[in-house]
Design brief:
There is one protein chain. The protein has 421 residues and is mainly α. Helix content is 76%, strand content 0%. It is built from 19 helices and no strands. Helix 5 packs across helix 6 and helix 6 runs antiparallel to helix 10. It starts with a helix and ends in an 8-residue tail after the last helix.
Length: 421
């Protein structure tokens, strides 16, 4: 009964427009009102308990790394390099946006940060070249979600907190879907560019210019490789890697690019702090809901009901994906991960799916919600930058949805696609 009351209260508050984290906390308070033993003191203790996790330290450091690297000259150097490399192909300038998001995925780990940073640089440029604003916004909105598949990934850290899956294993497993998603989205850009006659760069390829641009971009290209090497060979833990990546970003910005001022450092720290605060508040709020679900043994009852009703593992996997897609359309990704993981981990174990494969399937699935209405965060950001109606952007996103769903089904039903450490 506590779970039902909490869920109804949360749903009502969320529909009224209350932020998800606040709706979770207030919903838990209202749901626990009938209980004489569980009150405000219990909620406060649960909020604090969930934050006492050492791996969570990685979140602010990875966010700070991304803010330092993306906020300086690096972004422009990388886009110049990719423009020289791919600008002459059909849909090449749009493919630059997809590839930029993939590379920045190895730096920031946040799709929202990617959509803001890459979108601000590329959407005006694409519009100036003659690309439809809606297509430019849709491409960046979809491509930004590759960021949370390529390590480091903030949602993967959150998922590991609840599921007890290895962060390092999740990071390694996220590489393949990220690369395939990048290839699929670039193919969409190529086909659309060729079919609709989008403009492209026709100037001859300049090897000298390319070598200079590659040299300037190497620090960004090297960081994700170093992160994987350090994790794969056990040189450092994910938390230690996050701190080292921040030091790396500071040294690169200060010594190589020489664009690190006290003002930019302060701005990066504030941005990373605010982004971390939002994520931490959602984690804290979800911990109360998680405790209520566990207290009433809802995950176990849910597993028994689904197995009894559906029976076949493929039907269970399909139903999990349908639920995740529906939830992802209305709830932000971090909150959705925290709410669904306690329910789906025991269900996945019952059908023989390990937690790493479930995590990759969940991240791919919920990432689609980031560029799908009505609550698509990256969709709102890029539509605002392009100054175009969201409905027009959604129409341009249809081929990207098809590619993403195809990749989701591949990783959901083929366990061999999940890379292992």
């Amino acid at each position: 009964m506590l779970s039902i009351a909490t869920f109804i209260a949360f749903l009502a508050l969320a529909m009224l427009g209350l932020p998800i984290a606040h709706a979770l906390i207030v919903g838990a308070q209202l749901g626990l009102m009938p209980s004489e033993r569980l009150g405000s003191e219990f909620i406060v203790s649960q909020l604090v308990t969930q934050t006492q996790s050492f791996p969570l330290i990685a979140i602010p450091f990875f966010m700070l790394t991304g803010s330092l690297m993306v906020g300086g000259k690096l972004g422009q150097h990388l886009i110049d390099l990719l423009s020289t490399l791919m600008g002459r192909f059909h849909g090449g300038p749009a493919q630059v946006g997809v590839m930029s998001s993939t590379i920045f995925g190895g730096v920031s780990g946040s799709a929202v940060a990617d959509a803001s940073a890459i979108g601000s640089l590329l959407i005006p440029w694409l519009k100036k070249l003659g690309y439809p604003p809606a297509f430019a916004a849709g491409t960046i909105a979809a491509a930004a979600t590759i960021d949370i598949l390529i390590p480091p990934s903030i949602p993967m850290i959150i998922y590991s907190l609840v599921s007890n899956a290895s962060i390092g294993a999740l990071f390694v497993a996220g590489i393949l879907p990220g690369v395939i998603m990048c290839g699929g989205f670039m193919l969409v850009c190529y086909i659309q560019g060729r079919r609709r006659g989008f403009p492209r760069d026709t100037t001859p390829f300049d090897w000298g210019r390319f070598r200079v641009q590659l040299l300037y971009s190497l620090p960004a290209l090297a960081l994700p490789v170093l992160i994987i090497i350090f994790l794969r060979f056990g040189i450092a833990t994910p938390t230690e890697v996050s701190v080292m990546s921040t030091l790396y970003a500071l040294v690169v910005s200060w010594i190589i690019y020489r664009d690190l001022s006290m003002a930019r450092l302060k701005h990066s720290i504030v941005d990373a702090g605010l982004a971390t605060a939002v994520v931490m508040l959602i984690i804290m709020a979800s911990s109360v809901i998680g405790w209520i679900l566990t207290f009433e043994q809802l995950p176990a009852d849910f597993v028994a009901y689904v197995q009894r009703t559906l029976g076949e593992p493929w039907m269970i996997i399909l139903s999990m994906n349908v639920i995740m897609l529906a939830v992802g359309m209305f709830i932000d990704l971090p909150a959705a991960v925290l709410l669904l993981t306690p329910m789906f981990v025991p269900l996945a174990a019952a059908i023989g799916m390990d937690t790493v494969q479930l995590g990759i399937m969940m991240i791919i699935n919920l990432s689609i919600g980031l560029y799908h209405p009505p609550v698509g965060t990256t969709l709102f950001i890029t539509s605002s930058i392009a100054q175009v109606k969201m409905g027009k952007v959604v129409i341009e996103l249809i081929p990207f949805y098809v590619v993403a769903i195809g990749i989701l089904l591949l990783f959901a039903f083929v366990p061999a696609m999940t890379l292992r450490m």
